[in-house]
Amino acid sequence: MTATQPRSQPQPPESQPSDSPAPESQPPESQPSDSPAPESQPPESRPSEAPAPERRRLFADLTPLRTSAHYRRLWFGSTVSWVGQGMTSLAVSLQVYDITRSPFSVGLVGLFSLVPLVVFGLYGGAIADTVDRRKLGLYSACGSAVLSVALATAAFAGFHRVWFLYGIVALQAVCAALNSPARSSMIPRLLPPEQLRAANALNSMVTTFGMLVGPSLGGLIVGFAGYQTAYLVDAVAFAASLYAMWRLPSMLPDRKEGGRRASVLDGLRFLATRPNLRMTFFSDFCAMILAHPRALFPAVAVLWFGGDARTAGLLVAAPAFGALLGGVLSGWQGRIRHHGQAILIAVACWGTAIAVFGLTRNLWLGLLLLAVAGYSDTVSMIFRNTMMQVAAPDEMRGRLQGVFIVVVAGGPRLGDFLAGSVADLTSPAVAVTGGGIACVVAVGALALYGRGFRRYDALDPTP
């Protein structure tokens, strides 16, 4: 699951067809002679572009959507498919509970999804650095659509077996582990480096919107039309993603390893020798493992706020709402050059918000603090993704995205386990506040240790 600022002098529409990927390093003199380079354009020829930075100071920069038709289709397709996947995720959980009446059985759905995602995440990244990423993304998206059709067919036929649902969920996770590195690695080939930060902000809105809207729609559709309709809608939703992938050009990785297959170990060795990229993962661990109180929300909803399941739902939704705002209100980030500093500050803000949340007993203040934490997490994620895409060579982007999947999928689960264990040994307040403080202390230690990370300059990226 991230270029620092929009191009100040965009290409004229006729100089670059919207259906071709934006060049990353094409010199101005290589452009067609009948379409002048941006540097040669007189200021008076583009008066409408001058106030653009002011309009984008607060809200998300939409330049990637305007300049690249490929990225625009990919973004729209991802939005639709994320909503569909959110619907299916809830529908499967509801169906498992409907069959078994067992919360433990419902919990196993998450396990059957997590394990393949972690196991195949690294290998999916290696495959994305070996084969045509367009084909990998297309085939894996086709696999996800076929699995949704299988769920719908089984529901229409009255075949209600828990083992079947678990198997489909596991296979869907495998497809996601293959699709995500391929999709993320293609974005730097579609956009120039200065637009990658804006693109990652837009991508963060896609995932958060899908997680917020998808389950809500899934619950409504299951309630009114049954499980089969929710699964069928998800299968149809994949059509947008498939169309976007199909329209892309070939995306073979730019490899310097000859014909040898990309190795997971080579990717890990590369990461071990690149301190700035390595620090992006360490900083995320500080937040996701030390200060991740999500598992305690059902308990604190009752113990702290005297609420019920609806209160717990609000606690879960607050960070997601803040994360969505982090993407919507991301225009200011284009002026930030030192991405490492921004990541450290954002993670420290996450830890501080979580620590103060553990001290409050006012529900609305608690929701505000969780929203601040979610906003900070999105800011950190945008800059971390941008650093990986800009500072890493193309031949390693898939494998780094595979590591990113493992961290994003596994880190919060470890955080849930740690928070639950500490709360059981002490109290929820100690687990939440102590975890937030530990996060701030840990990220402070990283700031002292990683001087190069603090000095990382987006205009001169060093992995």
How many helices in DSSP terms?
17
Shape: globular
Mean pLDDT: 84
Low-confidence parts lasting 5 or more residues at pLDDT below 50? 1-56
Could you spell the SSE succession in H and E letters?
HHHHHHHHHHHHHHHHH
Class by SSE composition: mainly alpha
**Describe the biggest sheet?**
none
Let me know the number of strands.
0
Indicate the proportion of strand residues: under 5%
Distance between the amino and carboxyl termini: 19 Å
Helix content: over 70%
Q: Rg to the nearest angstrom? A: 22 Å
Task: Describe this structure as you would to a colleague.
The protein is an all-alpha fold. The chain is 71% helix and 0% strand. It is built from 17 helices and no strands. The chain has helices at residues 52-55, 63-67, 69-100, 103-128, 133-156, 162-190, 196-225, 227-247, 264-272, 275-290, 297-303, 309-328, 339-357, 363-391, 394-425, 428-449, 451-454. Helix 3 runs antiparallel to helix 4 (103-128).
Write the layout of secondary structure elements.
Elements: H1 52-55, H2 63-67, H3 69-100, H4 103-128, H5 133-156, H6 162-190, H7 196-225, H8 227-247, H9 264-272, H10 275-290, H11 297-303, H12 309-328, H13 339-357, H14 363-391, H15 394-425, H16 428-449, H17 451-454
Helix pairs in contact: 3-4, 3-6, 3-7, 3-8, 4-6, 4-15, 5-6, 5-8, 6-15, 7-8, 7-12, 7-14, 9-15, 10-13, 10-14, 10-15, 10-16, 11-12, 12-14, 13-14, 13-16, 15-16
